[in-house]
Amino acid sequence: QVRATRHNLVILDWGLPDLATIGSLPFLQTACPDLAVIVLSGRPEARLEALAAGADDFVSKFDPPARLLAAIQAIDTKISGVDHLII
């Protein structure tokens, strides 16, 4: 699906049942080398694991919504080279 849709960004829930999360990041990076991945998790301690596995950013489900928006904006700026304002 990721290849077919050609999105620039995926927000991956690190705790999805039946998903080999660590294995899915290398697969996504191989299938779509330009794809950015933000990992979202209810386990803040998973941050280092997610980043080591290749995530571009990590957001805890306990972070304020503005933290997720900031992560998306940072990826958008990185991809486009233009700083867009997200409201």
User: Helicity, in percent?
Assistant: 40-55%
- State which percent range the strand residues make up: 15-25%
Overall mean confidence score, pLDDT: 84
The gross shape turns out to be: globular
Q: Label the structural class.
A: alpha/beta
Largest sheet: 3 strands, parallel
Q: Number of DSSP strands?
A: 3
Total helical elements: 4
What is the radius of gyration?
A: 13 Å
Can you describe what's shown?
By secondary structure, this protein is an alpha/beta fold. It is built from four helices and three strands. The chain has a three-stranded parallel sheet with strand order 1-2-3, sandwiched between helices. Helix 2 (21-31) links the parallel strand 1 and strand 2. The relative contact order is 0.18.
